[in-house]
């Protein structure tokens, strides 16, 4: 029986999934990474000890560790972005060690037209929702509206059949974009022009030319059944489509629901369900985040650290600011409850990243109580989640904590123990009731420490 390790981000995303997946693949000698939600908007960074670095978008983060990748039926496959990533990744891995890429033919396809409509919609929106501008929501909305929405199966077709499948997609999305902008000259609409169509269809056929395996769902299930697998998610439970704080959510189930389903279908033995957290909270773009301290590089006074800027996290025109806040055990407990409500299974362990950020800190604080988020056993209504968002945002908008959180309930630790990060690990074990199996003390593969904290 094959063995499976399931990983899930307990935050708003950006908790370090890539580096954790890479470490788990190496530790357990896994042969396959399954991407079980999201699409090309993921940016999971892995840095090898020899200096090789890649931000994984659709390829699995176990690629440097020699793992093959399966893009499951729950993934949104973007052929153009996949080609870009292939060209970036190949020189870093080498053709002699190049792993296979498998795509379930049932996976939805994100086209440049979905991306263009997404950006048109965000351009006219008065209040941003934190979209990444990669067409994720438009792909899902289109599939709900049109039963003939393209799936990965079409990417293995010949030119004429692929063009026939894509032409109505372009025309429908172009009509929506034109209606939104009342014009056809926006930079985001250039991709809809007829002269671009042939080039885009030819580009989409690269999967067939480069020998990417587009397989049936039955074949995908068999692949999992015969491989020791690490399941890699995207985004985080706190922006989950069913449990996140509406409207600042994604069009994706960010719990382990899809991973559990795929593993069960394959008869794989799930040996570990690991929730991933940072030593502090982060969020891209607007939406609630209790305990927020700053956005884009301002000092974190509660850590006594002057610079928390990150090379791969900054302001961008779609998600806007990258934001940072106090470690929030209330929110992480809520995420654990949501995962159980969605899957019927409990997360059984933690991986903690960015422990090195606590080096040199002379004081730090975390939120252990002081506000409440109710986790419902059934799927919450949009109205209920909108109300929760209003409570979370408070009168100060995105910076609610001075008025919203009882500061007397904050847990202060001064000074931090010299064994950097270990004080936080003990706090996490105590607050979340889970053992810590991995801590990350830097970006490289060798900066990982496997452990098992006693409860």
Mean pLDDT: 82
Q: What share of the residues lie within helices?
A: 25-40%
Largest sheet: 10 strands, mixed
CATH superfamily of the largest domain: Adenylosuccinate Synthetase, subunit A, domain 3
Helix- and strand-based class?
Answer: alpha/beta
Write down the domain tally.
3
Strand content: 15-25%
| Continuous helix count | 13
Number of DSSP-assigned strands: 19
CATH architecture name of the largest domain: Alpha-Beta Complex
N-to-C CA distance = 29 Å
List keywords for this structure.
Adenylosuccinate Synthetase, Chain A, domain 3; 18% strand; 455 residues; 13 helices; 3 domains; single chain; Adenylosuccinate Synthetase, Chain A, domain 1; globular; 10-stranded mixed β-sheet; alpha/beta
Describe the structure.
With 455 residues, this protein is an alpha/beta fold. The chain has three domains: 3-107 and 212-269, Adenylosuccinate Synthetase, Chain A, domain 1 (3-Layer(aba) Sandwich), CATH 3.40.440; 112-149 and 159-204, no CATH class; 278-450, Adenylosuccinate Synthetase, Chain A, domain 3 (Alpha-Beta Complex), CATH 3.90.170. Helices cover 33% and strands 18% of the residues. It is built from 13 helices and 19 strands. The chain has helices at residues 17-28, 79-93, 112-124, 136-145, 159-181, 194-204, 206-209, 217-225, 257-266, 329-343, 382-393, 401-404, 422-432, and strands at residues 3-9, 32-35, 44-47, 53-56, 68-71, 76-77, 101-104, 108-109, 213-215, 229-232, 269-278, 281-284, 292-295, 322-325, 349-353, 364-367, 410-413, 436-440, 448-450. Strands 9-7-5-2-10-1-11-15-18-19 form a ten-stranded mixed β-sheet, sandwiched between helices. A hairpin with a 5-residue loop joins strand 3 (44-47) and strand 4. Helix 3 (112-124) runs parallel beside helix 5 (159-181).
